[in-house]
C-alpha cells in the first residue's frame, strides 16, 4: 500500500481495509476484484472513481462506470455526488444498455438509423416477430416466443443473422435465421432497435469503423464494471473494444458465486478467465464481509460450497454470530403470507427494524400476489419492486406509443397499437387494407397513410377516418420537432389524442385510475425535465470550477448533449428494467431474488423454499446427477438471497401451494438440507426434523405420477402437520385404485370409509371422484 499523499486521499481511504485500499490505489492497467458477497466491491468501485477524479485528476468525462441496473447506477451516482459534488455529473455512470444507447444515438447514421430511433421492448419485439414470421412465410411450426428467445440469444452472443451457425439438418435453426433476417429488416425500416441491438450494433460499428471506436477509446481512459460475473459475450466484446487487453485501465469487480443471469446469456467464465484475457491483470481478493452476521454467512457458505466449479473463497466477519436463522413451515401459501406479514409487524414493533430495512423475496413473480394481499390486509406498507409494471400498463403503453410516433412516425408497431385508440372507428378491415398496401408499396404505415387515396377498396368513411388519424400524427410530429421539454410534449400529446379526456368521460373506476396513470406519466416527464435542467447547470459550474482545460480534439461532451428532451425521456422509459423500482422509505420491499442482487436489508424473508419452486422446476428436470448448470445457478441465487440479510434471515416454505393455477405438494427445498441445523437453533434429532430431502440423489419431480418417482417426504409432512395442526388432512396422500391405478388425493367430502374422495390419477385418467374404501394407501 502506498502512503496517502494528501487530505483528499486519506479521507477516501479512511474506512477501507488494506486490500480495498489496494484496489482503490492501483495505478494503471487491468484490475480484477473477485470476492464474496458484502465484502465491499461496490464500495471499492465508487471510491476508486472518486480517487481518480480527486487525487489523480482524471477528467470525470473520461470515466465510464457500468453497473447492472439503472437503480444501481442511480445509487452509485448518489454516492459519487456525495464524494465529488457537481463533478459527478460529468461521469458516465450507467448500465451497459443505456451507455450503448447513448453512444449509438450519437453515431446512428453509421448503422442505418437516424438519431430519433426508438427502442422496442419485449412486447414490441413479440409483435414484430409475429409479423416477421408472416413475411418470411415460415410455417407456424415454431412458437413466436421460442423464435424470439433464440434471436435474443444470438444477439447476446454478438451474432447477426449472417453470423449464425446453422447445421444442414437443423431445421429449427434455419427457421430462426430466416425470421431473424426479416425481423432485423423490419426493425431498420421502423427506425427502431431492440435491447439486443443496442449492444450488438455498437460492437459491429466499432469493429467496422475503427475511427469511430478510436474516438471513444481516446475519450474513456478508465472503464469500471460492477457485477462483472453477469456480463454476456456481447457486453464483454464491447468492453474489450473500449478497453483492449492487455494494458487498458479496465477494472472489473464481481463474484462468480453471484452469477445468476445465465438465462440471459451471461457467462460466468468471463470473470473466471479474466486473467487470461488480460494477462498481468492485478487481482485483489476481499475476504472480510461487512454486511451479515456470522450465522447468516455460515448458512450461505454451506449452500454455495456444494457447487463444484467455483473459485473457492471463504468470507469472514467481525460481526457477532447474531440471531438464529428461522425456519417457517406453513400449511399453504396463504398461511405463509399471513405469517410473513405477522412477523414483519412483530419485527418492526419489537425488533426496532424499520419497514424499509426489510424485504421479502420469491423465486417467481407469480408468488407476489398472495404476499401482497396478506400485507395489505395486515396493513404493512410495501413496494413491489417490479420496475416495468407501471410502464407495462395498457394505457401507459398507448401513451408511450404516441410519444414514440411523435419523434419517429415510421415506428409501425406503435402506429398499429394506437390506430384505433381512443376508438375512432377504424376497424380490422381498414387496418388490413392499410397494412397490405404499405407492404406492397414498401412504405411505412405512416407513409401509407399519406397515400391513402391510392388504397384499393377503401370507402369514403374509412378514408376520412384514416385522414383524421394521419393529421393527428403529422401535427404531433411537428410539435415534437420544436418541443423545449418532455413534459410539454407529453401534455400536448394527451390533449391532441384525447386519451385522458376519453377515459374521464367513460367515468368507470377503472377508467379513472387509468386517467390517473396518464397524469402520472406527465408527472414523470416533469420530474425528468427538472433533473435534466439541474444536471446541466451543475455540470457547467463544475466545468468552470476546474483549473485544467479539456485537451484539444478529445470528445468530452456529455453523451446526451444534443438529444432532444422528449427523445431522452423516451429512452429513459424504454430502459427501465425489472429491478428498477425505488425501494421507498417506510415500506417493505417485495421482489424476486434476481432483483435483489447488490442490495442489503436488516431482515430478509425468503419464501417458497420448496423444490420445484426454488430450485425452479426447470433445474429439477436436468438429466445430470447434480442438476447440472441450471441447478448450480439456482444455488447461486440462493446464495444471493441469503447474503442480502444483515441481521435476520427467515426461510419459509409451505406444504402445499397453488402456483400457476395448480395445486402442488412439493418437498422442502434441497437447499435447506445444506444449512446446518444448529443455525436454526435445532439440536440433533430435535423435532421438527428439518426437511432433509434426498438432496444429492438424482430424482424426478415429486409430483410425477410414476411409481418409480420419489414420494413427498412423509416425515416432513408429519412434522409440519404437527406444527400447523392439519392432522386429518389427507390431501396430497398417495393412493391406489384397482381400476385407475395410482394417484394423489386432491380433496375429500365427508369422513370414514364411505367418504367421497377426489383423486388426481396418473396418465390419461385425470381427476376422479371415488369412494374411500376402494382406495389403498401408497
Ligand atoms: N471497509 C469497510 N468498513 C465498513 N463497512 C464497509 C467496508 N466495506 C464495505 N462496507 C459496507 O459493507 C456493506 C457491503 O458493501 P458492498 O455493497 O460494497 O459489498 P459488495 O461486495 O458490493 O456486495 P455484493 O456482493 O452483495 O454486491 C455495505 O453496507 C458497505 O457500506
Ligand atoms: Mg455490490
Automatic annotation (TrEMBL):
Chain intervals for the UniProt region annotation (Disordered): 684-723
Annotated positions binding ATP: 35-42
Catalytic reactions on record: Couples ATP hydrolysis with the unwinding of duplex DNA by translocating in the 3'-5' direction; ATP + H2O = ADP + phosphate + H(+)
Enzyme Commission number(s) of this protein: 5.6.2.4
Entry-linked Pfam families: PcrA_UvrD_tudor (PF21196), UvrD-helicase (PF00580), UvrD_C (PF13361)
Root EC class: isomerase
Domain UvrD-like helicase C-terminal: 294-598
One GO BP annotation of this record: recombinational repair
Keywords assigned: ATP-binding, DNA-binding, Helicase, Hydrolase, Isomerase, Nucleotide-binding
SUPFAM superfamilies named among the record's database cross-references: P-loop containing nucleoside triphosphate hydrolases (SSF52540)
UvrD-like helicase ATP-binding domain ranges (all copies): 14-293
Molecular function terms, GO-annotated: 3'-5' DNA helicase activity; ATP binding; ATP hydrolysis activity; DNA binding
Gene Ontology CC: cytosol
Family: Belongs to the helicase family. UvrD subfamily.
Record protein name field: DNA 3'-5' helicase
Organism: Corallococcus llansteffanensis
Lineage: Bacteria, Pseudomonadati, Myxococcota, Myxococcia, Myxococcales
Amino acid at each position: 500500500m502506498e502512503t496517502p499523499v494528501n487530505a483528499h486521499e486519506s479521507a477516501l481511504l479512511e474506512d477501507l481495509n488494506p486490500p480495498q485500499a489496494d484496489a482503490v490505489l492501483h495505478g494503471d492497467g487491468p484490475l480484477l476484484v473477485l470476492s464474496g458477497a458484502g465484502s465491499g466491491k461496490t464500495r471499492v468501485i465508487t471510491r476508486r472513481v472518486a480517487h481518480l477524479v480527486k487525487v489523480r485528476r482524471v477528467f470525470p468525462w473520461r470515466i465510464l462506470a457500468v453497473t447492472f441496473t439503472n437503480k444501481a447506477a442511480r445509487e452509485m451516482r448518489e454516492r459519487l455526488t456525495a464524494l465529488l459534488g457537481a463533478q459527478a455529473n460529468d461521469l458516465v455512470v450507467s448500465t451497459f444498455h443505456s451507455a450503448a444507447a447513448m453512444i449509438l444515438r450519437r453515431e446512428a447514421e453509421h448503422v442505418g438509423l437516424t438519431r430519433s430511433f426508438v427502442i422496442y421492448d419485449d412486447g414490441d419485439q413479440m409483435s414484430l416477430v409475429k409479423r416477421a414470421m408472416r413475411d418470411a412465410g415460415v410455417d407456424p411450426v415454431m412458437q413466436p416466443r421460442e423464435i424470439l428467445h433464440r434471436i435474443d440469444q444470438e444477439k447476446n452472443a454478438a451474432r447477426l443473422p449472417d453470423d449464425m451457425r446453422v447445421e444442414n439438418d437443423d431445421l429449427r435453426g434455419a427457421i430462426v435465421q430466416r425470421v431473424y433476417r426479416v425481423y432485423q429488416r423490419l426493425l431498420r425500416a421502423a427506425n427502431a432497435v431492440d435491447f439486443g441491438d443496442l449492444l450488438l450494433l455498437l460492437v459491429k460499428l466499432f469493429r467496422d469503423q475503427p475511427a469511430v471506436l478510436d474516438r471513444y477509446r481516446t475519450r474513456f481512459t478508465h472503464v469500471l464494471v460492477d457485477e462483472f460475473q453477469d456480463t454476456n459475450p456481447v457486453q464483454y466484446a464491447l468492453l474489450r473494444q473500449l478497453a483492449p487487453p492487455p494494458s487498458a485501465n479496465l477494472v472489473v469487480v464481481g463474484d462468480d458465486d453471484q452469477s445468476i443471469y445465465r438465462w440471459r446469456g451471461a457467462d460466468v467464465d468471463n470473470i473466471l478467465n479474466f486473467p487470461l484475457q488480460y494477462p498481468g491483470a492485478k487481482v485483489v481478493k476481499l475476504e472480510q464481509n461487512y454486511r451479515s452476521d456470522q450465522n447468516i454467512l455460515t448458512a450461505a457458505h454451506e449452500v454455495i460450497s456444494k457447487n463444484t466449479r467455483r473459485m473457492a473463497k471463504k468470507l469472514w466477519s467481525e460481526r457477532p454470530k447474531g440471531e438464529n436463522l428461522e425456519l417457517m413451515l406453513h400449511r399453504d401459501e396463504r398461511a405463509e403470507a399471513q405469517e410473513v406479514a405477522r412477523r414483519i409487524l412483530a419485527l418492526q414493533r419489537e425488533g426496532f427494524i424499520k419497514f424499509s430495512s426489510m424485504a421479502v423475496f420469491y423465486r417467481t413473480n407469480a408468488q407476489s400476489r398472495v404476499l401482497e394481499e396478506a400485507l395489505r390486509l395486515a396493513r404493512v406498507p410495501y413496494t413491489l419492486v417490479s420496475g416495468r409494471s407501471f410502464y407495462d400498463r395498457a394505457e401507459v403503453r398507448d401513451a408511450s406509443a404516441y410519444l414514440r410516433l411523435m419523434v419517429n412516425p415510421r415506428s409501425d408497431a406503435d402506429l398499429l397499437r394506437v390506430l384505433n385508440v381512443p376508438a375512432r372507428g377504424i376497424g380490422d378491415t381498414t387496418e388490413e387494407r392499410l397494412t397490405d398496401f404499405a407492404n406492397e408499396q414498401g412504405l411505412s404505415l405512416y407513409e401509407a397513410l399519406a397515400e391513402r387515396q391510392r388504397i384499393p377498396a377503401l370507402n369514403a368513411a374509412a378514408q376520412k377516418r384514416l385522414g383524421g388519424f394521419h393529421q393527428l400524427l403529422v401535427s404531433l410530429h411537428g410539435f415534437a420537432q420544436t418541443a423545449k421539454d418532455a413534459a410539454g410534449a407529453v401534455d400536448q400529446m394527451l390533449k391532441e389524442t384525447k386519451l385522458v379526456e376519453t377515459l374521464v368521460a367513460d367515468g368507470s373506476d377503472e377508467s379513472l385510475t387509468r386517467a390517473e396513470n396518464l397524469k402520472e406519466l406527465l408527472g414523470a416527464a416533469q420530474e425528468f425535465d427538472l433533473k435534466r435542467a439541474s444536471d446541466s447547470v451543475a455540470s457547467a459550474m463544475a466545468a468552470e470550477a476546474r483549473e485544467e482545460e479539456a485537451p484539444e480534439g478529445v470528445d468530452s461532451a456529455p453523451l446526451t448533449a444534443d438529444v432532444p428532451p422528449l427523445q431522452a425521456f423516451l429512452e429513459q422509459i424504454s430502459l427501465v428494467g425489472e429491478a428498477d423500482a425505488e425501494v421507498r422509505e417506510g415500506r417493505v420491499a417485495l421482489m424476486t431474488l434476481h432483483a435483489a442482487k447488490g442490495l442489503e436489508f436488516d431482515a430478509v424473508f425468503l419464501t417458497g423454499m420448496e423444490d420445484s419452486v426454488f430450485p425452479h422446476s426447470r433445474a429439477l428436470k436436468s438429466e445430470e446427477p447434480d442438476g447440472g448448470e441450471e441447478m448450480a445457478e439456482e444455488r447461486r441465487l440462493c446464495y444471493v438471497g441469503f447474503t442480502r440479510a444483515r441481521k435476520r434471515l427467515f426461510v419459509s416454505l409451505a406444504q402445499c401451494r397453488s402456483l400457476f393455477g395448480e395445486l402442488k405438494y412439493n418437498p422442502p427445498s434441497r437447499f435447506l438440507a445444506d444449512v446446518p441445523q444448529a443455525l436454526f437453533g435445532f439440536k440433533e434429532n430435535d423435532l421438527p426434523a428439518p426437511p432433509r430431502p434426498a438432496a444429492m440423489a438424482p430424482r424426478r419431480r415429486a409430483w410425477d405420477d410414476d411409481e418409480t418417482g420419489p414420494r413427498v417426504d412423509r416425515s416432513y409432512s408429519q412434522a409440519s402437520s404437527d406444527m400447523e395442526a392439519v392432522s386429518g388432512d389427507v390431501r396430497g396422500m398417495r393412493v391406489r385404485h384397482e381400476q385407475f391405478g395410482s394417484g394423489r388425493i386432491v380433496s375429500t367430502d365427508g369422513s370414514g370409509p364411505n367418504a367421497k374422495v377426489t383423486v388426481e390419477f396418473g396418465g390419461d385418467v385425470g381427476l376422479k371422484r371415488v369412494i374411500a374404501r376402494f382406495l389403498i394407501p401408497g
